Amino acid sequence: MAGKCDVRARLLQGNESCAEAALLAGVRFFAGYPITPSSEIAEILSARLPQLGGKFIQMEDEIASMAAVIGASLAGMKAMTATSGPGFSLKQENLGFASFTEVPCVIVNVQRTGPSTGLPTSPGQGDLMQARWGTHGDHPVVALYPSSVAETFDLTVKAVNIAETLRVPVILLMDEVVAHMRERVIVPCADEIEIAWRPRPTVAPSDYLPYDAGPDGVPAMADFGTGYRWHVTGLYHDITGFPTSAPAKVDHLVRRLEGKIANHRRDITFTWDEHMDDAKVAVVACGIVARSARRAVRLARGKGIAAGVFQPKTIWPFPYEQIAEIAARVDRIIVPEMNMGQLIGEVQRAACGKCEVIGHFRVDGEPITPEEILARLEEV
Amino acid sequence: MISAGSPEAPVLVRREWCKGCGICIAMCPKKVLEAAPDGKAVVARPDDCTRCETCEIMCPDFAVRVVAKRAAAPAGRREAVADGR
Amino acid sequence: MAKSIDEYLRTQFMPHIWCPGCGHGIVLNALLRAVARLDLPKDQVCVVSGIGCASRAPGYLDFNTLHTTHGRAIAFATGIKLANPDLHVIVVTGDGDGAAIGGNHLIHAARRNMGVTTVMFNNSIYGMTNGQYSPLTPSGMFAATAPYGNVERNFDMCELVRASGANYVARATVAQARQLSTYIERAIENPGFAFVEAVGSCPTYFGRRNKLGSSLQMLETLKKNSVTAAAAAKLDPAELRGKIIIGEFYRGDAPGYIELYDGVIERAKEAAGK
Ligand SMILES: Cc1ncc(C[n+]2csc(CCOP(=O)(O)OP(=O)(O)O)c2C)c(N)n1
Ligand code: SF4
Ligand code: SF4
Question: Which chain A residue has its CA at the smallest distance from C83's CA?
C-alpha cells in the first residue's frame, strides 16, 4: 500500500498548477485544441490523464472540444478544456448549451491580448465580459480568476467543485503571466481537500425528473448508461427534460438557472484584501494586476497614504455587495486593468456614485507595474 | 382507437399517429389497406395480408403494426401493442 | 423474434412533428428495427443529434438521448464514447447538420475511427429552416436560397467518409428501407467509425419547390434512380447523372481510437510506474 501522502511544496508553472489541481479534484477527461498561452495544460494532461485511467483527446477545433467535454461529463466523467481568447470565442455556443442543460464542466481561458489574433503571447485581460456574456441569451456562469500559481491551484479545485455541485460551467480566467510563471505551491494530499460530485438521483429511474430541482435550485444528475434514460436538449424544457414552449415553464427555467447561482452566491464568492480597514483610497484589481496593486498599496502605506487593495477572485457572479460597502467608506477607487475598461464598469455599478471611480487601462501587451498604480495613488 | 378491421386483423393502424400520407396503401403488394374519407389508412382486406411487413416498415409515422402470427390470437395483447405501452 | 419498435418509442410524444410522408420517419423506423434485431439494452444506447428536422429524432426515443447544437453531434458523441465505451453511441444528423456546419467533425471522427455510428438523414435540403440548399442539394435543383438553381456541386458523402478512414460506409434510400435497416444494423455492430447515408425526402420543401410530386411520388423516384454499386461500376458518368449509388462501400476492422487509447493508458501507467 502507498504510504501516507506528504504535503509537498513544489515549484510549479501556472498552467502546470492548473493541470495538477484538476487531476486532484477528480478531472478525468480533457478535450482541447492547442493555443498559446494555454497549451501546456493540454500537454501535461495528455501525459497525466492516461496514467490515472482518464482520457485525453485533441479535437479538430475548440467547438468540438467544448462539445466533447459536455458529452464526457454527461457520461459521468469530470471534464475540462483549456484555451485562449480566439478559442474561447469558438466555445461560446456550446458553453451556453452546458449552462442551459446544466452539465458540469470547467473551461480554462488563459487570456492574451485581443481582439483577433492580437499579441499571441502577451498578457491581456480583455475577456472578462466575454466570460460573462459571450454566449447568447440569459444564462448563469461562474468565473474565477487567480493572481498567482498557488491561487491557480486552489481556484482550479474550487472551479471543479462548483461546476459539480451547482451543475454549471465554471470558467477559470487566467493571465498569461501567471500561466507561465513558476512559483512555490503547497500541493495538498487528496484526502486533505474537499472533492465534490454532482448531486445524484435518490429515486428510481421510473420516478426520475431530470430537471426537478429542490429549494437550492440544483437538480440531481444521472450519468448516461446508469439506467436513468433521460433527454438533454438545448430547447426550453420542463422538469421532465422534454421540450416545452409553455410560457410559465419557460420563465421558471430561466429564473431557476439564475437563481441557483444567486442562492449560492456566498459559497462561491472568493475575495482577498489588504489594508482595507482604514483605507481612503482602494485599488480594485484582479489576476496579475492585483499583485501589482498589492505592492503599490504597500509602498503607498510606507509613504503615509491610506490605501488598500481588494481583489475579487470570483469575477462572476461579481461581488457587488462587497464593492458597494467599500465605496461607502472610501473617497475613491482606482481600477487598474489590462484592457480598455471592463472591470471598472462593474465597480461603478456597485459603487453607485458613492465614491469616485478612476480607471487605469493598459493595452500595450505589457503588465501594469506597481509603480504605475503607486503614481495614481499619489495623485490625490 | 384502432382500425383493425376484424379482431383477427393482421395489421393494426393507430389512427391518432397516422397522417394520411398514403405510403402504406400504395406499397402494400396485396392492397390490404385503403384510405378512409379523412385520408387515414384503414385495413380493408385483412384476409389478403401475407404479413410481409412492408406497410409497417414504410410508414414514416410508426402508425402501422403487423401482428406476428403467434401474437395474433389474444385481442387484449394486441391492444397493448397498439397503444405502444 | 425481434422486439417491437414500440419498446423504443416515447409514445407519449407521438405523433411526431415531421410532416406527412417525410422520409425521416422511414429512416428512424429502419434505425429502430436495427436496434430491435440487435436487441441492444436501452440503457446502453445513446442517441445524439444536432439541430434540424432529423435531429428532433432523439426526443422520441427511449434511450439516453442528447439533442445538441447545430452540426456538433459527432463531437458530443466523441466525448460520450470516450467516457463510457460500453455505450452504443448513435448519431442522427441531417445533410446540413452533418455535411455543412458539422462536416469537419464528421471527417475527423472518421479519421480517428471513433467508435460512433452516424446515420445521415439526407433529404437534400435544410428542412427545418424552410428549404435552403445544403451541400447535398444536387446541382441544378432549386431551393429557398437557390431560386435560379443550385450552382454548387454536391458532396458524395460516402466517398468523403471512406477516404477519411471510416470502418463502415454504406448508402441506401428510404425506398430500400429493409436494406437501409440492415446497413444500420451492420454499422452499429462494426467497431470503429461507421457511416450510413440514408437518402430520404423532404416533400414539404425540396419536393414542392422542385415539383417532385407527393411523398409517394418522391419515393418512387428514389427507387427509380437507385443503382447498386455493382451496376454503377458498369455505367459511364453520363449514364450515372442523377442516379443514387446504393450499397455497402466499405467494411473494415482497423482498430479504432477507443481501442488504441487503451494502449495509451497501458503505456502511460507503465511510464508512471518507472
Ligand atoms: C449555429 C446555427 N446556425 C444555424 C442554425 C439554423 N438551422 C437550424 S436547422 C438548420 C438546417 C437543418 O438542415 P439539415 O441538417 O439538413 O436537417 P433537416 O432539417 O433537413 O432534417 C439550420 C441552418 C442553427 N440552429 N444554429
Ligand atoms: S404510411 Fe403511416 S402515416 Fe402514411 S397513411 Fe399509412 S399509416 Fe398513415
Ligand atoms: S420540413 Fe421536410 S424534412 Fe422537415 S419534417 Fe417536413 S418534410 Fe420532413
Answer: A72
> Containing domain of residue C99, as a range?
22-229+237-271
Tens-place pLDDT, residues C203-232: 999 999 999 999 999 999 999 999 999 999
pLDDT (0 to 100) of residue B68: 77
What is the C-alpha to C-alpha distance for residues C159 and C155, in angstroms, rounded to an integer? 8
C53 in contact with ligand 3, CB cutoff 6 A: yes
Number of domains in chain C: 1
Please report, in angstroms and rounded to a whole number, the separation of the first and last CA atoms in chain A.
63
pLDDT given for residue C145 in this prediction: 98
Q: What is the mean pLDDT of residues A102-119?
A: 95
Domain B11-83 annotated CATH 3.40.190.10: no
Domains annotated for chain A, with CATH where assigned, are: 9-192 (3.40.50.970), 205-266 (no CATH), 272-379 (3.40.50.920)
- Find out whether B32 and B49 touch, Cβ atoms under 8 Å: yes
Measured CA to CA, the distance from residue C187 to residue C262 in angstroms comes to 22
Chain C closest CA to B41's CA: distance in Å?
13
The answer on pLDDT for B71 being more than 60 is: no
Q: Which residues of C touch A59 (CB under 8 A)?
A: 75, 78, 108
C56 to chain B, minimum CA–CA distance in Å?
14
Q: What is the mean pLDDT of residues A301-307?
A: 98
Mean pLDDT confidence for A202-225? 97
Q: Considering the entire predicted model, what is its pTM?
A: 0.96
pLDDT tier for residue A106 given thresholds of 50, 70 and 90: very high
With beta carbons less than 8 A apart as the criterion, state whether A17 and A156 touch. yes
pLDDT computed for residue B78 by the predictor: 39
Q: Residues of C with CB below 8 A from A80's CB?
A: none
Distances (CA, A) of A72 to A56, A80, A279: 11, 9, 48
Q: Nearest ligand, CA of residue C51?
A: 1
**How, if at all, do strands A332-337 and A281-284 pair?**
parallel
Q: Are 3 or more Cβ–Cβ pairs between C and A shorter than 8 Å?
A: yes
